[in-house]
């Protein structure tokens, strides 16, 4: 059996916030740093307001861009009136990966206990682009990257990972 080789991905980061910009966006910065430290490429990093149409516009652009293999959003996954990221993203998905949100909440339970029920993190695929929707806290971004995404976006992770499945996502 041959050893799989690391395949760097082009990953875009979208922060959803009415109050942050690129300079004050610690969550997006945390993701960007982890993406690069893991050997991937940061395709682009943006901050947009809590507006479903702005979220969809940027996400749709990346989904249509064959050079972008994954998108991670941070922010807007709570339960307040302005938290609309899951509703903005879901209509764009071809397939929802329910296990991502379940695993994120399970990992978060160990850190923030029952407060994790307020997270509506989700994962999915659109046009063979991996989409992950994370809460806006820096801790949540660390939890998702370190506990799930780092391995699932690495072709060497066994027994399975998203990278080795990417060629088949257009079937």
From TrEMBL:
Domain MoaB/Mog: 12-156
SUPFAM superfamilies associated with the record: Molybdenum cofactor biosynthesis proteins
PROSITE patterns recorded: MOCF_BIOSYNTHESIS_1
Cellular component GO terms, alphabetical: cytosol
Domain of life: Bacteria
Pfam family, one: MoCF_biosynth
Keyword terms, alphabetized: Molybdenum cofactor biosynthesis
UniProt-listed SMART domains: MoCF_biosynth
Annotated pathway: Cofactor biosynthesis; molybdopterin biosynthesis
GO terms of biological process kind: Mo-molybdopterin cofactor biosynthetic process
Annotated InterPro entries: MoaB, MoaB/Mog-like_dom_sf, MoaB/Mog_dom, MoaB_proteobac, MoCF_biosynth_CS
Family: Belongs to the MoaB/Mog family.
Function, as annotated: May be involved in the biosynthesis of molybdopterin.
Protein's UniProt name: Molybdenum cofactor biosynthesis protein B
Lineage, top ranks: Bacteria, Pseudomonadati, Pseudomonadota, Gammaproteobacteria, Chromatiales
